[in-house]
Design goal:
single chain; about 260 residues; mainly alpha; 9 helices; about 0% strand
Length: about 260
Amino acid sequence: MNEFREWLRFAHMGFGFVGLMAFWIPVFTRKGSIGHVRFGTVFLWCVYGIAASAFIATSHEMYLAIRSGGGPATDPSGFGFAIFLFYIALITLASGRHGYRVVETKNDPTEINTTAHRLLAIASMAGSVITIAYALLFWSGLSIIFLALGPIGIGIGSSMLRYMRDPAVSKMAWWYEHMGAMLGAGVAFHTAFVVFGAQRLFDYAGSLGALAWLPWVLPASVGIPASIIWTQYYRRKFGDLPASAPRPQVRHRGTP
């Protein structure tokens, strides 16, 4: 069993490392180019690998805790952390899958409205509710992190459902959804790197003190506003937002 857990951990780390590298190539390559598509596909498969390994690992940890008589009452931090990691894997999967499906169905956006896709959106929102409720009911040192990142799943799920209800709200709606969803999945990969990878490389965890929650929320606090700004830029570019109105000229007295 220990060998299986080690194998699963290394597989998870491998998917995370490759996905982190693959994420940036589509960002900087021409949209729709061969490089963009190929490395985007690599990133998507890493999303699937990360999610699958996390689901198995966290479910196994929760099962072992319950079987041994543990659980939220006896170990709120440990059990809650397993729930939280399951939730993070779920919203990462939802973002990555949605980002892929909007491109796959761009010629007929109604095809995205499937039972599986709706269930994934609803599961993301349910994951948010469970994470927030757990943080409040079983308060621990991790509750602040759970509460800070808990609402993200509601945002992801509601965005997916909104697009499924009205995918043709604009001609380029699929583009904006694709960018936002893939950036959201990228934020999850960077969060894992900052929290686990970078802390091991630079050994700064002990020096954060009361700010130990910061690495968890830093990627999201940068990535979410960046996604909004980038989407607004392309909305203007494609004519879905009015260009900034010209500033009125101020005439002074005596000016003809």
